[in-house]
Write a structure and sequence with these properties.
Blueprint lengths: L8 H52 L3 E6 L2 E8 L4 E4 L8 E2 L3 E7 L2 E2 L12 E3 L8 E7 L6 E5 L6 E4 L2
Antiparallel strand pairs: 1-2, 1-7, 2-3, 2-4, 5-6, 5-8, 8-9, 9-10
């Protein structure tokens, strides 16, 4: 009569270790991809929101603005009678903070210093004529990766693309 054959404890442990190594490699890959996807999403969201605000400026015959800070951005509308910029607090144009990324803006190829969002003064103006201030906004991740650039020449659509 043949003895019943099964797996030894060592064979089972080797299989469990191999599965653990493969599972950890997959999880690490997803975590890295998740951060990169968030970076891309933030750049594309900012480009789309600027285009939406530009469209609102044209439709409402108002001047809109975007104030960019190192840790976020906000949309403003010019209150002409009082000569001041008002923060948009609701919907897609609400003030946004970003984590693990840094924003920097260049207007006409000149970097703008400081945190202008506290003063409610826009870095970028979206005119009711459809034009806007030419700009480049770099979104730099805090991990080692290439930044994204959201930009417009002032007339063309706002685009988001990876910088190499």
């Amino acid at each position: 009569m043949k003895a019943a054959r099964g797996f030894t404890l060592i064979e089972m442990l080797v299989v469990v270790i191999i599965i653990g190594i493969l599972a950890s490699a997959v999880v690490i890959g997803f975590v890295g991809a998740d951060k990169e996807q968030n970076l891309r999403t933030e750049a594309e969201r900012l480009a789309v929101l600027i285009e939406m605000a530009r469209s609102q400026a044209i439709q409402r015959n108002e001047e809109w603005g975007v104030a960019v800070a190192p840790n976020g951005y906000q949309f403003l509308v010019l209150d002409e009678p009082n000569h001041r910029w008002l923060e948009q607090k609701d919907g897609p144009f609400r003030k946004r903070s970003i984590e693990n990324m840094t924003l920097s803006v260049q207007v006409d190829a000149v970097p703008l210093p400081g945190d202008k969002s506290k003063d409610n003064v826009p870095d970028i103006v979206l005119f009711s004529s459809g034009e806007q201030t030419p700009f480049d906004i770099d979104i730099t991740p805090q991990w080692k990766s290439d930044p994204w650039r959201v930009s417009s020449d002032g007339v063309s659509r706002t685009t988001a693309q990876r910088r190499a």
